[in-house]
Amino acid sequence: MRRRPTPRRYAGLFACLVTWALTPAAFGAGGAELVLHGTGPYFTLQLPIALPAPAAAAASPNNLRVLNGRGEVLPFAWDDEAAPVAVEQLQTVPLFKLPGARAANDRPRAGAEPGWILDTREVSGTLQRLELELPESTRGMFTLQVSASDDLQQWRVVRAAAPVVALQHAGQTLRQTTIELAPLSARYLKLSLAQPGTLPELIGARVASLREQARGPELQWTDPIMPSRCDARHCDYPLPPRLPVEQLQVMLHEANTLALIEVLGSVDPEQPVAAAARHGLREQLRAVRRKTEPAAEPASERHWVGLAAATVYWLRLPEAELKSPPLPLAGSQHAQLRLSSAVPISQLGRQPPMLRAAARTRSLVFLARGPGPYQLSWDAPPAGPPALTLTQLMPGRAAAAPLPTDRATVMLARSAAVAVSPGPTLTVPQPSHPRAAAPSGAPGLWAVLFGGLALMAWMARSLLKRPVRQDARARAPSDRP
């Protein structure tokens, strides 16, 4: 006997559909599910550039929240304490001979101390060493005293006796012209004789300094991006929305190819870049409806500004294979990039070049609490306290301690069907042919709600009709004659 579906079973099916619709991955543009790797309770999360709106969350950090399975807001802190990196630079400094100074074959003036003055005011960081440049004809051993000052009046000795050697014998040369300095900061340096003798002639001096530079987040690279359209002399490439491109890699398809190219970025003078990107998608959708290729945009609606010019190459030489390095950009945001060449694009290979863009994103640390699944939300207004500092979030952490090693990765919405991790690459849709954008989770949620209402109406109708049929069957025998 075939069992008839009961209203309880329909109610269970409706509850499953509603649960699916309300999962964090179904929200699409407003949130994404987090996957935790480790025991916690602190997790480090680097925002990937593949999120639908990571730039908006970074521009307005107050709109970003981390939620647990109960919808509770979890405390988090931005990783703005970038570890400093020591960077050494070698810089040429101005060199001045003291008036009346005694050099080789010169006689000193009465009361004048022979020496040289080095102007180090333009050197940033702490002074590490001094490299002197002597004429090729200089021969001898010299002992110099190095003094430092900030006002040319008060001098302090920083190196009492520094040997400088320039010798040559039997075709061999011995030169020692580097003076090591204790890390110091000074606006001027003075070289003088540490003991009676001859002051060497100098033709130049360089100072090596060490300065601490904050190290930002690691660069994240997109997957190769195909051009959306090409002309005889240029190709246009779409970019993810609001992506601050810092480096650009031009990928040639054939070896032994070399070309002079120029990179331009699209700029809409009346609308922000994000609006310009939506406008470009609207034009592509119109082209799909017309079953034609996207028409060229009028010059009045889109302008192009130059970003970089360089020689790109892929050379396969007998000793090694050479490829052009990434092009540095200023981190500006553009909806599209244009690759223009002085020669026809067809001469760059059988296929047009592809691009890879790199950008930096921020990292945060959050304290996991409660059941999962955990969610990263960036569209809803904040419903909890603002972001904390690392010191407030982690009271027992030292100032220079590394971030937690346990990681959290972001899962994109079901419509994207892509898992994104904070690695160096991500997946970008390739617009080789125009197609409509993937729908967000909101239409599906509305469809589930309307379907649930229809199911409840049918269940109510079934419950109302069932008692009437039973009463009719009960009265049927009494009506017979």
Written account of the structure:
The longest helix has 35 residues, at 441-475. This protein has five helices and 29 strands. A hairpin with a 3-residue loop joins strand 17 and strand 18. The protein is elongated. With 481 residues, the chain is an alpha+beta fold. Helix 1 (7-21) packs antiparallel against helix 5. The chain has helices at 7-21, 54-59, 273-290, 390-393, 441-475; strands spanning 31-37, 42-46, 65-67, 73-74, 76-78, 84-92, 95-97, 115-119, 126-133, 140-149, 156-169, 172-176, 178-184, 188-193, 204-214, 219-221, 229-230, 234-238, 247-251, 257-267, 303-316, 321-323, 327-328, 336-341, 354-360, 363-367, 374-377, 407-411, 419-420. It has three domains: 13-79 and 365-395 and 402-442, no CATH class; 86-214, Sandwich (Jelly Rolls); 219-360, Jelly Rolls (Sandwich), CATH 2.60.120. The chain crosses the membrane at residues 444-464. InterPro entries: DUF3999. Keywords: Membrane, Signal, Transmembrane, Transmembrane helix. Residues 1-28 form the signal peptide.
